[in-house]
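User: Here's a chain of 431 residues. Predict its fold as tokens.
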Amino acid sequence: MDYDRPEAHDVEEGLTTGERGQCVCKQEPEVTFLTLAQPSAAVTEAKTVLHDAEAGSVARPSPTLYTRLEPYLHTLPATQQMDHIPPLLFLDECFRGAGQCLFQNNPLSGACVMAGVAINSRPALVAALVGLVAATATAHILVVDKNARRNGLFGFSGFLMGAAMALFHYYDFDTAQWLLVPVALMSALSVFATVGIANFTIPVCGLPPLGAPFLLVIFMWLMGCTGGLLSYFPLNGNIIQPRVLSNALEYTRPAALDYTFVELIKAVCVGMGNTAFSADKWTGVVFLAGVLVCSPISAAMMLCGSVLAVLLQLATGVHQDMVSLGLLAFNCILSAIALGGTFLVLRGVRVWLSIFVGIVLTFVLTVGLTNLLSPAGLPVLGLPFTIAVWVMLLCARGVDSLMEMPLNLITTPERNMMLYACLRAKKKAQE
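Assistant: Prediction complete.
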């Protein structure tokens, strides 16, 4: 199958400009990202073509490893058809919310994310679950978009909120249990932020909100707690501390830095664990397994993003202690997953160049924002990744050979590739 830019007008309209700025309110349960309007004829046709291809009524592209594995992986939509058992449906939404921290709309992926956080810190898992349940329950109370809620798009901010607050505050099973109260409140606020931001970024810019709702709420909370202003909720000064930067007054030739191979391998795994605020090498391995359950392509992108982030740190002279912490890598990993098949169709050479540039841009933003925010004692969190992915998606609209997936058709990279291939096959059959 030729994956060159499609010449068919319906393919172009279905996968590039036709759906930009449009979103879905009534979609199939497997649709992954927040959607807000009716699908256009191009999207309806695209879904029909894919359904016909799966049923064998139209020509289907030659099978690949991805298409053979896809029926056994994907997003497990069957678990979302439990309207008659509300508790199980709510549980499925919560597990999917945890999985969405890594762009995986799969309850098994969510279970792996929870297990990974527990490996690093059981108190952090408790806080993350409180945030997850609070956010998902708030989405039910507000009666927000049903499909977005069922796909965990409101829960993941709450999960991250709990994990982040457990990390940056003094919190464990013996002290400061009252931190769970603001965890629940901030997680509920993240739902309001998600709805508000998504109603701007999707219809106006055609961009997913990504981590913006979580970042807005957690930054406001951390700034409020910095300096002891909220004395009942002090921040952990061993982890988050304002500092003043300085530069050398004269040039000194930098000495070559030594790195050990074992520590670099550990840094690759720790970086993956930091995607959910869990700096543990085994947590990173479990996270990788959770992504693999849903999408082998995303798992490969996750690993490649972590390796590339470590190499960038070596090339720029970051000390081994900092490399081992994985703090400069996790944003690069998230960008690799987002650009590597989730929002862009993996076809042609330029998409790989875009992924590489996106990771490098994320790394530059990470180190720059780290120094910018350090005087205020604030971590960068997922801000570099959010900015970088937005920039690269906007850039993709000006490059002819890049194919941006409509937000209401995104599921997994494998299925995105299959949809594009089926549309190409239909066009060739009509010629």
